[in-house]
Give the backbone structure.
Amino acid sequence: MNSLLILIAVVAGVAAIIQLVRLNETASALRKEKTEEIVTDEENNFMAWGFLIFMFAFFGFTIWLMAKYGMGGLGPAASVHGEDTDWLLKLNYWIILPVFFFTNALLFVFAFKYKYNKNRRATYFSHSNKLELIWTVVPSTALAVIIFMGLKTWVNIMFTAPEEGNPMVVEAYAEQFQWTFRIAGENNNLGDADYKLICPAFEYVDDHGDTVKFGGNPMGIVTKETVLAKLAHIDQLVATLNSDLVKATGANGDFFEPDEIINAKMEQIEILNTLKYRIESGIWPTVMNDTSSTNLAGMDDIYVPNDIYLIKNRPVTFKFRSKDVIHSAWFPHFRAQMNCVPGLQTSFTFTPNYTTKEFAELPETQAHYKEINEIHSEMQKSLGEEVENVDFNFMLICNKICGAGHHNMKRNIIVVEEGEYEKWYECEDFKEVTPVTPRLDIMGRPVVYEGWNSTSDEKLINHTNMAVENASKTVEPEMEIVDPVVSIDSTMNAIDSSMITDAHAPEQP
Amino acid sequence: MAGGHDHAHDHAHDHHHEESFITKYIFSQDHKMIAKQYLVTAIVMGIIGIGLSALFRLKLGWPDAQFPILEALLGSDAAPNGELQANWYLGLVTMHGTIMVFFVLTGGLSGTFSNLLIPLQLGARDMASGLLNMISYWLFFLSSVIMVISLFVETGPASAGWTIYPPLSALEETQPGSGLGMTLWLLSMTIFVASSLLGGINYIVTILNLRTKGMKMTRMPLTIWAFFVTAVLGLLSFPVLVSAVVLLLMDRGMDTSFYLSEITTSSGALAQSGGSPILYEHLFWFLGHPEVYIVLLPALGISSEVIATNSRKPIFGYRAMIGSILAIGFLSFIVWAHHMFVTGMSPFLGGVFTFTTLLIAIPSAVKVFNYITTLWKGNIKFTPAMVFSIGMVSTFITGGVTGIILADSALDISKHDTYFVVGHFHVVMGMSAILAMFAGVYHWFPKMYGKMMNKKLGYVHFWLTIISGYGVFIPMHFTGEGGLPRRYYDNTEIPMFDHFMDLNVLISVFALIGVIGQVVFFFNFFYSAFRGPRSSQNPWQATTLEWTTPVDHVHGNWPGALPEVHRWPYDYSKPGWDEDFVPQTVPLKPDEEEH
Ligand code: HEM
Ligand SMILES: [Cu+2]
Ligand SMILES: [Cu+2]
């Protein structure tokens, strides 16, 4: 099929060029000839027939595409409101498609029928209030139907009361270029999150002299523990910077290192202190007390850096945040989409009404994936690769341009029955998580990641240490999901090393 | 109107002066020369813009293939071993969109035809201010140059999409294209807006003040009405884009936080907080939606003129046509948030914008039916301009009906940012507006260059354009229906879209055919400008004033007194007259009714 199309392209291209050259010759001949009529009868005839034939070709092409890919070519909807929007889409198509065919046909048929004839005169018909009234009122009526039905559906989707149907609450956190999830835990209440608390895994000694192994806080969740850890982390960074400065200071108070490095370090200390102040004054008071609602809400949240599980027929409220740029969470099968905007929490509620397994067994899905697998195996064979089958999965993909890895920002959504969900929730199924594709850097190349230490891959922020470690064991090393958070210290390293190399460069002959 | 007279005196002297090459061809203040300058600049930009799309279509059609031509053209950073890199893919898409929307369809379309036709069809010696007009062109030229230069910077051109939403466009560390490339983009657009504003003010003032005797507003050709409303839209909406751009520049360079809040990038947690990217989207689309009509209205105006002339029939429902232009112009200011249904904006507002957006379909439908009725019982001459105009009406229908689907917020949830949107707006902008622009070029080429373009090549160009256009954009509606997101560098990463592989090849094939079609046009244009046969004074036998001027341009347009207007511009095949057209300058017979 592919090669056939390429062939068509080449032939059409060559034909067009030949045509071009030939016409160019006739063109110069024409230039000499005196023209009486601006357009000859022959040309009028040719174009009139051209329009008629074009109309059939155009309609045929559209109908062929409709037959092959379907109207609303996504297949059946897998959510309750999705069935409504699909119905609405069909209704709209039944209104606009006749308009499309009828009006285009009128246009081309009139063009054909009223082609120029010397012996005829056009009818002087400059206006008719009656006609114009008709084609104001008829479209208005059709649009009234479309508007009414559309708004009704829209209201049903968007104006559900937050507690209706006891939705489970899931957060999807977008960043260049991956999704991570957080589930609200036992209390079904997502804790607060604050980007200032994003922190890598590290160790520190707390006020009581105990060594604390902190698992990292990639989503910036607010609890007493994460705040304390972040403050300790800032202190460590500041201490390192300060000792660097001390080391770089000579006896007479001069610095050994170039001014830029010294200034960058001082500036970093400044920034870190401001950050610390903002955390201490803005966040700390809300979690100081172990039993504060913020603390309790955040404590039991679970970080899921892999595919997320949902329950069939239980509404789910997705809350979206973004760490860096705008992304858009697009769930094609659920007909759900919402932008993820830095600085803003958005949300979308829907109810999945098929399990992944049920949906995969629908004839439409079977046909769709059969076709896909045929294409794949053909391609893989031609590339000499092993033939791998793709299985159906509901997906979450990114639908707002967000940089070089935009095309590769995806997660599977797995819908199961309640009982199975419990099993996953108890972390049985974490062992079988599918490895995530490598993340891309801002140049669109797979990340080779160093900044975040390997234990940070433990998918977990809080003590809710559920069996998550198992998961990281099963993930193949090169497929490892790399944690996004490049911490302040790695930036510092970057600044350091680049400046140092710069500074030393001139010294080399 | 009365002003026309003293004006005549000023200019009567003017054309005794010998003009130097520089004042005649380069820093010309003559509206006809400026129109040609706009057109040629737009054609050059068009060649670049279309060329870019061909390059990225190669990647989408044949994701695994290597194209040495890419490396040759873009360099080995952008396409090592002939494989286009993701950043550069986005850069090409962004530059393609920007160039086509702003430089070809805004600067090029309005710049060319408003400049050429406003004085000529109104019976004015020139624009109200020749100097402003000249400055406007040179600013346009400067901004084009800057935009093109940004393609050559090391980190690549702006690559955040033509809508350049922050934070992606604000933070260099999120993509290389948001560095110098983006700065140049912003600079270029600011200059561009200055150019449009100067042009727009000039058009409005000229239309309101310099109409010749008898040229009442209700006797103006529909082209002028369209240019008038277009200029007003531009004047009211472009300043908002400038504010958006200036705020973005400040966020980029001065640590302000209009659009930035709670962001962590590779350089750590940013201090900025409190801003909102949604603010940018509102500002952008407050321009952005009127902008699509800034592109479309001149196209509708041109088609009205060409269709009436070549059907040898009055345009049907002249007043309804004016009314619908005004209605579209007004409504286009209160629909912008239909681009933002899924940004988390209040669902109530979403409902309101669904309502206002769908209202636009009513005046649009009126226009379509009026065009079709104009053809009905006409006596149609298929000049190249006419066939392009018929194509324009067809694509306007097609793109209008898909707009209805998108306008429905409940449906837009699953259409937004998919290829369905890409299909929709290319059918209306990439086809309707472009086809009308071609129609305008073929129709007024004799007025601009005193020569005729080659008809046969025009027909070839038409068929290649419309076939490839529909061949590219109709299938996109289906990949969009299938959920395929736009601006994906590689559609094969997500297995559920793999059944569209063939369709993507088909689209790319048609795209390449389309490019070949445009080569025919470029050849025809430049060839005819130098070697085309000389045109007669009124080759299409049209009624409007521009065809009463001599074939060879004179400064001041009419060698003698300004023409006087006695009737509306659409007296084609009027009963009681032998000729099938009665020019606007011919007085009414004693018992003749106007229309
Ligand atoms: C009946 C008339 C029309 C309606 C109801 C309509 C409606 C819409 C809607 C709702 C969208 C947003 C889709 C989305 O992003 O999810 C849209 C996008 C767009 N429309 Fe239209 N439209 C109409 C005509 C036009 C015309 C005449 C033009 C241009 C000449 C145009 C150009 C565009 C462009 C450029 C976009 C996409 C911008 C982007 O996201 O990059 N539309 N249209
Ligand atoms: Cu994205
Ligand atoms: Cu719009």
